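User: I'm curious whether this sequence folds into something compact or stays loose and floppy. Could you predict its structure so I can see for myself?
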Amino acid sequence: MELSKTFNCPKCGTAYRQVNNTAIHYECSCGNVNRIDGYLQSESNQKLKKLPLYSRFKQDTKGYFNQDAFTLTGALVVVFKNAALNFWTMKMQDGSVRLLEESYGFQTVLTPVTGINTKGLYDRLNKASTTKDTIIDHLGTYRLVQQDDFWGFDVKGESAADILGAEERFLFQSRDGATYIEIWLAGKDCRIFKQEPVETIEELELSAINAAIQFNEKDYADCASCGKEVYIPYFPLVKNFVCPHCTTLNKFSERWRWEKDQKVPRLQNNTAARIPLGTNLHLLGDDFKVIGATIKEDNDEAQWQEFTLYCETDGGFAFLSVFNGNFMLVYETMEFPLLPSVGQSSLYFEDTFYLFYNDYTTKLLWAEGYVFDDFASNNRRGFTYDYIAPPYLFSLERDGDKNNYWFRGEYVDRKELENQETPLVLPKKIGLGTLEPSSKFSNRQVIIGGALAIILFVLVHLGIDLTGTPAKVVLSNTYTFSDTSKNIEITSEPFELDNFRTNVGIDISSDVMNNWVSLDYALVNTQTGQEYNAGKDLEYYSGSDGGENWSEGSNTYDHLFTAVPKGRYVLNIEAEKGTDAGMVTSLYVKAQAGSKRALNFWLPFILILSWPVILLIRNYSKEQERWA
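Assistant: Here's the prediction. I'll summarize afterward.
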């Protein structure tokens, strides 16, 4: 193993002992950035700038990545055209070096990829497109996601990130969507890294982190229009601000200065949400601070608001979108699905289908505070494509064929905003929001819940049938009318009803034809004398008329005495046959104690079934409102 070397700063003479033998830059305690090339020499690269380090990470912090120990030795701060990123040097336990890319609330580990045949890769990178495949040697086939220009850099501590000569940064996604690679282009030299996203800082098991990002309270810029001093704490993460003195939007340029974009116009009759800059919000479990606001318009002249939010929980940025009094929280993501083809109706990502909802161009109308938009971009032809799976969103912003920016969104319940510590003025809600759930329960949840409820109900009924008292036949006989009498009197043997409440069922049938039978029956408690009475006429007629057969009435009847109290009972039946010309000779009677009432099963069954059916119909109706 090569021993670490000791150098002296060429500016102040302070001794420095090299931590990582592959280090390229070192920032001395005097603030001088030195290049390490066998000795220390002051870095003279014109892109070296004085930049703040806004990070949750700390120098000399130890941690683990995929169970491999590492130490953070320093950071390379880079300002790109479209972003600002920190690249922390991770000195691994085995002596190798990786980079921890960090900013905007996300972090990714970059592992250098060696052994790549880069012949011809420079030309392929210049031709790379978000819609065309690029072959990168044995790594396979990739699609360009983003291309960005290096504008400037600074070094904090000791850095092994080789920034020298770098001009462009490319981000690629594999054709199967599983892997990402990053390429730094320096002349024709291609520095290739494999990206491995880190979901949360906690995954790195760091020995120490900053509880929150502390922004520089002395960071000011002069407005390019009125010349007055403006506080710019979020630079270079946010490179646009609206001057509070003259309302001119300023944007930072590659010439490393603030330039005038356009004076912000006044909008009349604005009845949108009023959330003042500096307001603290608690949304979806995170704490935010409102640092900017915009009003935008699409190509159909629909207007909405976007509030720029700084997330004090993880140091990232998000956007609170407001349209027709409906709210969603949107944030950029570095994990996303494959680029959809033209006319593709859905996306599939992380076990969820997102349906195509809308595509549109965006124009900035108004802004205040610190924002990520500018008026000059209104002249650029960019499209946005929204895919939804309420309450979630995937939004793709395409900037030509060189840059795709992916955003995730989530519905924010209006009550969350109404319950903030600071009272807010909110616009009236109109219609169903883009991401507003049509119900508290999704169709899948309704179907599963309804099926489980029905299965449970059937099992309970089966359990009652199997464990309950079986039905007992107390009377079953056929009775015949004599030629000399048209009446029959029937009395059952006494029987006991042992349960607190019991149903007693009676089934009667007869061979009546073109005649009738009048029935009166009474269930009598032999101990108390209490009677339960009922009556019915059985009548059945049939014949033919004009060659067509007809019939009316019925020769069967059933009756249920419900919830009969416990006791000893007899059943009395009196039957009288009719005097019509038809026939009636016999009567069959069957009585059961403990009869089940079909309505007891089907009524609750229908009621249980109606719950998911009604919810599904309601969900469908609401969804039609969303897509109308």
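Summary: The chain has a mean pLDDT of 90. The chain has four domains: 6-198, 265-418, 443-467+602-627, 472-593.
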